[in-house]
Amino acid sequence: NWSTLTSSGINAEYGEGWEFISLSDQQRFGVKTAGLEDKNTACQMLVCYARELKDGFAPYTEEVVKIMVPLLKFYFHDLIRSAAAESLPFLLESVKHRGDDYVREMWNYICPELFKSLQTEMEPDILAVVMESVASCVEVLGVGFIDGLQMEELVEAMKNHLKKNYDKEEERKQARKDEDYDEEVEEGIEEELDQDDYLLGKIADIIHNLFGVYGEDFVQVFDKLTEYFVAMLALDRPSLEHQWAICVFDDLIDFAPNSAPKYQQHFLQPMMHYLSDVNPGVRQAAAYGVGALATKFPGAGSPYEDFCKNCIPSLVNVINDPESREVENMSATENCISAISKIFKHIIGQDNLDEATVVTWLSWLPIQEDDEESVHIYGFLLDLVESNNAFALGKNNTNLPEIVKILTEGIINKTIKSDDHPELMARIQAFILPLQKNEAVWSAILAKLPDTHKVLLSGQ
Length: 460
Description:
The structure is a single chain. This protein is mainly alpha-helical. It has 21 helices and three strands. A three-stranded antiparallel sheet has the order 1-3-2, with no helix packed on it. Strand 2 and strand 3 form a beta hairpin. Helix 10 (239-255) runs parallel beside helix 12. The longest helix has 32 residues, at 183-214. It starts with a strand and ends with a helix.
């Protein structure tokens, strides 16, 4: 319930359970909030049911979607709007088994209000949830559901947010020059920057999924946003913008590699430069991009051969930094190790690596955190072992215990998982099994391993 009343009309009849919003000096907007928490709880439960039951929730989706979509503009309670947005990809997922026509009909009901919310939601925390919902809907739907007009509306909404972000940074620059600038102003700027970083990350997630679903077909649409990401790579922009802009170009390389050369004038030099950035998130994004170029454009004579090779010194500097294994730096460091592994495998070739290079590379292992890049790093290690690379195995196979230790450590720290990396795990087993069958060799290897590794290898 709600009512509009003059300031003199607030009396005893409006007791607890009402909140008031001032519209003017003479008018306040009264909202009876009793029952809103129950409504919020009910919405949160519906999100939970849709998420957990999946296909089992299908009989209720038509009724629930007609409840949730209007609540995207329920401005009396932030968490209700949040729950409404969060529910939508789960509802779409739960009806996919009913066929494309049914999914399309539901999406066409959801889309107008969801994209309107993307454009108009004022609360940053709720806007982030709306962006997450859009990204998830893109992924759940796949190709063939977002039509041309809807895509234009989505891109226009993202463009508006990117322009707003650009303008806000210009305002922050000016605020730092004003005579009133002090520590309190800087605290406010830093808080706003954190908020903008979070939202830019959500926009990057949307673009990641659009590239992932549409690949090269998304490039023409991406053209309408390119100028903003190019601007974000400028040296005078904040590091958070550098990170997300590089991530977007990483996705272009990953999912639309044929179009990468068209944009290389924008991303190559910044990618190399930001390998040495003070922000580990920026280093991580740049290192991933270098590795992606090596993977997508392999072989001697690759258009990015010189670029990748020229990046190696910067990548090595990151890895060798005394603080490279600190928690906050770990992801960047391991992406650098992965990038070099990809360059060795796809650009230089293992037969062209000298002993010092292979020994140095081995000294960086095992990795501790990145279970996505591990398949590339440990995959290259197994390439060396399977080809009987003398530098990797050492004289008279003296490196075998260390190699077994590295691979076992990867399993222990869960950077190698049998469910996520079945092919890698099969290669490890194929490497270790013959060693176990040679009692003398296996005993010598076990003698040099910690107890935790021995337990794993014994199958206990």
